[in-house]
């Protein structure tokens, strides 16, 4: 680049960012509000929806835009949704996988698709950090991306795909629909060390979990809400086997476990395998023990789609949280209060869950002129 072009480009960026910032500060007009009512599927109103004033408040603080791709790739959100709907028919397990993927991406250095990057010379990939060892769904993101590249090459960011895909999965799981702003751009870094240090651990006690969520701007209510996503999917036995056989080195089970529930869990996760992996639950994908067929238990499955979230909170009330960290929600005044609330009020939970997911999806996003649009989600452009 010659020295002459550089200042011109810089100026262009400045003008561009100014223009963009004017656009952001424009109050949401009646027309936009109207548009997005039209795009919210009717069924999302059936059990708890987000109030419009809440959405407007939320959006006025966001650097992103509603329907960012309206001109550049008008069918972007529809392509994400139809791909998910098609793949879901043969692989229902993609639902919990993609919700988890969005959480893991956004919680670590923001929603910048850093979770998708493969190992490379300058990349220390989050996906290979031990706590992320069981993540799935990367192939689904790749399929969505290639469909989008076909429709509008180089336009839609992987970071937007991750949160939009999670949103559609929440709906498929029986949860609420929530509108999302778009215009996230992809980062060019991945942060494996931060995953290990800052992702809430399945063994964390209440104060650690609270601190971890608080560092991302979530209060205790929002934390209890987001953990409701543990309602679906599978949990690998290694994340809680210590509670069944040798809790805190006592050679006894976790005394807070309901005895009947303890037997159920023990029948699914046997001790032999437990002992081989109990010392370090996070090392599965690198240690020889990963060669043993991994044991896992299925949480709320498809049969209870209408109960999104409910089983989770009701289980906690009965002392039947599978992960130690989950059951910890019953140990705090405030967190216990919200567990009770959500267990008895599904529409309140749906409404709160929608808001919390919107907030999660906007964490530390990169917008123009930062970041890039990757062509392949696993590689920096
Ligand atoms: C239980 O855990 C403690 C501490 O981690 C360990 O020293 C002990 O060997 C374990 N017991 C069994 C039976 O593995």
UniProtKB/TrEMBL annotation:
Disulfide bonds: 73-152, 106-111, 158-377, 237-269
Gene3D superfamilies cross-referenced by the UniProt entry: 1.10.520.10, Peroxidase, domain 2
Domain of life: Eukaryota
EC assignment: 1.11.1.7
Protein name: Peroxidase
Binding site for substrate: 200
Family: Belongs to the peroxidase family. Classical plant (class III) peroxidase subfamily.
Cofactor: heme b; Ca(2+)
Molecular-function annotations in GO: heme binding; lactoperoxidase activity; metal ion binding
């Amino acid at each position: 680049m010659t020295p002459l072009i550089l200042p011109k480009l810089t100026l262009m960026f400045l003008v561009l960012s100014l223009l963009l910032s004017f656009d952001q500060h424009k109050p949401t007009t009646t027309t936009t509000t109207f548009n997005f009512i039209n795009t919210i599927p009717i069924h999302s109103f059936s059990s708890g929806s987000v109030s419009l004033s809440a959405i407007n408040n939320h959006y006025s603080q966001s650097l992103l835009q509603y329907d960012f791709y309206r001109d550049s790739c008008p069918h972007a959100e529809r392509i994400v949704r139809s791909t998910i709907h098609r793949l879901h028919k043969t692989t229902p397990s993609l639902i919990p996988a993609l919700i988890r993927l969005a959480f893991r991406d956004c919680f670590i250095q923001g929603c910048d698709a850093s979770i998708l990057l493969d190992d490379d010379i300058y990349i220390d990939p989050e996906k290979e950090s031990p706590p992320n060892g069981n993540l799935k769904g990367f192939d689904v993101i790749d399929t969505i991306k290639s469909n989008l590249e076909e429709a509008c090459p180089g336009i839609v960011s992987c970071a937007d795909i991750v949160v939009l895909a999670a949103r559609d999965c929440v709906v498929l799981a029986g949860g609420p629909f929530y509108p999302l702003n778009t215009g996230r751009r992809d980062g060019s870094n991945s942060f494996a060390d931060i995953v290990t240090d800052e992702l809430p651990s399945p063994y964390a006690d209440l104060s650690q979990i609270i601190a971890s969520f608080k560092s991302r701007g979530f209060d205790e209510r929002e934390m209890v809400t987001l953990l409701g996503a543990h309602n679906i999917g599978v949990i690998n036995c290694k994340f809680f086997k210590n509670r069944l056989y040798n809790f805190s080195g006592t050679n006894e089970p976790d005394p807070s476990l309901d005895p009947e529930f303890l037997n159920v869990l023990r029948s699914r996760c046997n001790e032999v395998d437990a002992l081989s992996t109990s010392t370090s639950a996070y090392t599965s994908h690198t240690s020889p023990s990963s060669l043993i067929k991994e044991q896992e238990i299925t949480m709320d499955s498809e049969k209870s789609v209408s109960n999104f979230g409910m089983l989770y909170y009701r289980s906690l009330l009965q002392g039947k949280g599978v992960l130690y960290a989950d059951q910890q929600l019953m140990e705090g005044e405030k967190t216990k209060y919200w567990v009770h609330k959500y267990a008895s009020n599904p529409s309140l939970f749906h409404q709160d869950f929608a808001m919390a997911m919107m907030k999660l999806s906007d964490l530390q996003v990169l917008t123009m002129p930062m970041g890039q649009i990757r062509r392949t989600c696993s590689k920096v452009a």
